[in-house]
């Protein structure tokens, strides 16, 4: 620990410990990496010339179930902060409750949605007790590491981009008061879009007002000056790239663009924090989603539900797998020249890489016949229940009912407010896919002996931005009903709902109960399993060859989702996860007639080029998949 010191905000700059302090920062999120991968990325940040690291804190990971807290392993926030200090880097901490970050529910815990009376992100008596309890517990982890206590944390954020959600400034004031009451005595800051409305709704005059933008402008300086007084100007998020969405395109920000924006911000007197500086991964089912459009979207796209990809590389100066890009070195030169310092080479980057070849998935097991075995619970209900209603956070949920024969007319399946994507089966045979807010047409007839209707719904990620996140419960959130087609081809609208459901909760926290042997029908869900040896533990990428959509476990850890519509083609597999003997388990939604295998490969390209993680392909409408 160092001597206690406090960051002082002056009109023309910053002081720390009585000396001028230059804040050059970048986001790196400890929870998007394995703990053993932290230090090599922090060293790159230090070599770049940064003086600070900014990180969010995900409430939904640290309190995964109500009242159960976890700050261990990869979630050891205090260890990460101490490591930043060891590497000579200060910390800007953004400690929840909301972070966006293209993360499920913006970092809020899913279990808040179990109670429809809870009104999130406002000064509501249904919400604030949860926030206060969590914040007090969280402060025990980081308050001892404030700079005023000799640690590396020099400033702490209050909420995040609140001006893009609501205008309850009393809530912002309360959040600041809670932090102060828990001993946070370093400067508090807010981050919002640069528009006057966003700043006015999302900050307080007494706090340090930051903006999130591609480039700090003179207009944004006027907004913050008029609102927050003469404090130093800071871009809390200068976007060096952007997150990728399933079915979108990988729309990179070129090195030349990034350099141009960085120079402009620095020349206008902004302190700059890059978002992101080190890319990471949305492991498991923790990617978020938007209701809208996005910078990586296709031209003229309509507003709709957009889930983000597993990779959070986001075209950052340091890639998802921890290598500096061409952008890194160009931006490093900009900072050095701005500060009048010589450009140094820094320590050599040593990323352990390997290709392990094609791994056959030697074992296969159909999902539907063993749904009882792999489900966490089974619930009987007259009407469909959401995931939250049966105390499930993530993964899949299966709804089944038996339909008796009434007539020979063709049915058209309708699911009101599906959240988010369903594959549908008639007596175990695949008959179609439905996707949230897309058109679909699944037709079938009920045989004389009746039939079992199975609807497997995937939670593709909760909305993480804007007012719609408050209502994004998962599964079948309303009713299932069926129109009929008359002999003349006329659609007969039916207003009765299908009832009497058996519901299977499938969070897939592990795959330990899966059995192998029974082959699946084509296009039905199935589990696959293979093994490989890794005498050399090194970073690699995993591609599911022959698969369409699903997720992958390696050594019992959920790497995340894959989907052949791209733009992400492969999953980053960190060396820290590998052992001498390794197991790969795949859940594939559309079992092919041929074989499924895993290709573990790491290609060598020129510096600054990307590895296998993405391709720049054409967009495929989600409704056609």
Descriptive report:
It contains 10 helices and 36 strands. Helix 8 (255-267) runs parallel beside helix 9 (326-339).
Write a brief caption for the model:
This protein is α+β, with helices and mostly antiparallel strands and 625 residues long. It is built from 10 helices and 36 strands. α8 (255-267) packs parallel to α9 (326-339).
Instruction: State which percent range the strand residues make up.
Output: 25-35%
Radius of gyration: 25 Å
Q: Give the averaged pLDDT, no decimals.
A: 93
Number of strands: 36
> Helix tally?
10
Derived from helix and strand composition plus strand pairing, the structural class reads alpha+beta
Instruction: Estimate percent helicity.
Output: 10-25%
Q: How does the major sheet shape up?
A: 8 strands, parallel, barrel
Poorly predicted spans: 604-625
Termini, distance in Å? 55 Å
Which geometry do the CA atoms define? Answer: globular
Strand order of the largest sheet: 4-5-6-7-8-9-10-11
Q: Keywords, please?
A:
single chain; 625 residues; alpha+beta; eight-stranded parallel β-barrel; 10 helices
Please outline the helices and strands:
Blueprint: E1 7-10, E2 13-16, E3 19-21, E4 24-27, H1 38-48, E5 52-56, H2 59-62, H3 77-86, E6 90-94, H4 128-142, E7 153-157, H5 169-181, E8 188-192, H6 196-202, E9 208-213, H7 218-228, E10 234-239, H8 255-267, E11 271-275, E12 280-281, E13 289-292, E14 304-307, E15 311-312, H9 326-339, E16 357-360, E17 363-366, H10 371-374, E18 377-381, E19 396-403, E20 410-415, E21 418-419, E22 421-426, E23 429-435, E24 443-444, E25 451-458, E26 475-476, E27 480-485, E28 491-492, E29 501-506, E30 526-533, E31 540-545, E32 549-554, E33 557-563, E34 571-573, E35 581-588, E36 597-601
Helix pairs in contact: 8-9
């Amino acid at each position: 620990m160092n001597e206690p010191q406090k960051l002082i905000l002056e009109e023309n700059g910053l002081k720390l410990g009585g000396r001028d302090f230059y804040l050059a920062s970048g986001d790196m999120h400890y929870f998007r990496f394995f703990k053993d991968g932290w230090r090599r990325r922090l060293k790159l940040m230090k070599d770049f010339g940064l003086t600070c690291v900014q990180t969010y804190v995900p409430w939904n990971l640290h309190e995964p179930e109500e009242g159960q807290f976890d700050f261990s392993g990869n979630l050891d926030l205090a260890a990460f902060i101490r490591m930043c200090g060891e590497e000579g880097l200060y910390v800007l901490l953004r400690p929840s409750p909301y972070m966006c970050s293209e993360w499920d529910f913006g970092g809020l815990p899913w279990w808040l949605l179990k109670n429809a009376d809870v009104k999130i992100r406002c000064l509501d008596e249904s919400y604030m007790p949860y926030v206060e309890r969590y914040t007090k517990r969280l402060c025990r982890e980081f308050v001892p590491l404030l700079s005023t206590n000799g640690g590396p944390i020099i400033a702490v954020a209050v909420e995040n981009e609140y001006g893009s959600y609501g205008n309850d400034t009393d809530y912002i004031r309360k959040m600041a008061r809670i932090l102060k009451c828990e001993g946070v005595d370093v400067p508090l800051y807010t981050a919002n879009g640069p528009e006057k409305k966003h700043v006015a709704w999302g900050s307080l005059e007494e706090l340090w007002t930051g903006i999130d933008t591609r480039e700090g402008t003179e207009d944004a300086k006027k907004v913050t000056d008029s609102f927050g007084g003469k404090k130093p100007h800071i871009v809390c998020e200068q976007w060096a790239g952007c997150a990728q969405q399933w079915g979108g395109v990988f729309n990179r920000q070129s090195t030349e663009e990034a350099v141009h924006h960085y120079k402009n911000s620095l020349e206008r007197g902004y302190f700059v924090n890059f978002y992101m500086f080190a890319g990471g991964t949305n492991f498991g089912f923790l990617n978020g989603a938007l209701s809208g459009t996005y910078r990586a979207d296709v031209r003229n796209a309509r507003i709709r539900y957009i889930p983000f990809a597993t990779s959070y590389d986001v075209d950052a100066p340091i890639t998802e797998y921890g290598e500096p890009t061409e952008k890194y070195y160009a931006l490093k030169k900009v900072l050095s020249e701005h500060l009048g310092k010589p450009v140094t080479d820094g320590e050599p980057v040593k990323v352990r890489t390997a290709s392990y070849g094609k791994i056959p998935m030697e074992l296969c097991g159909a999902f539907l016949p063993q749904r009882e075995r792999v489900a966490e619970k089974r619930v009987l209900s007259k009407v469909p229940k959401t995931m939250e209603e049966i105390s499930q956070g993530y993964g899949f949920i299966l709804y089944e009912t038996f339909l008796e024969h009434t007539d020979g007319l063709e049915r058209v399946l309708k699911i009101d407010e599906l959240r988010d994507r369903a594959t549908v089966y008639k007596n175990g045979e695949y008959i179609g896919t439905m996707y949230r807010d897309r058109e679909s047409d699944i037709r079938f007839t009920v045989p004389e002996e009746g039939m079992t209707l199975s609807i497997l719904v995937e939670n593709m990620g909760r909305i993480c931005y804007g007012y719609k996140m408050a209502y994004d419960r998962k599964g079948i959130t309303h009713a299932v009903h069926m129109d009929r087609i008359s002999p003349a081809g006329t659609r007969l609208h039916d207003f009765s709902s299908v009832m009497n459901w058996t519901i299977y909760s499938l969070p897939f926290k592990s795959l330990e109960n899966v059995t192998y042997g029974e082959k699946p029908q084509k296009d039905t869900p199935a589990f696959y399993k293979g093994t490989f040896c890794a005498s050399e533990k090194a970073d690699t990428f995993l591609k599911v060859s022959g698969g369409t959509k699903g997720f992958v476990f390696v050594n019992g850890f959920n790497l995340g989702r894959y989907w052949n519509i791209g733009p992400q083609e492969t999953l980053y597999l960190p060396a820290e996860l590998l052992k001498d003997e390794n197991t790969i388990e795949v859940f594939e939604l559309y079992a092919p007639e041929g074989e499924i295998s895993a290709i573990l490969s790491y290609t060598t390209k020129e510096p600054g080029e990307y590895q296998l993680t993405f391709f720049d392909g054409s967009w495929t409408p989600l409704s056609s998949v």
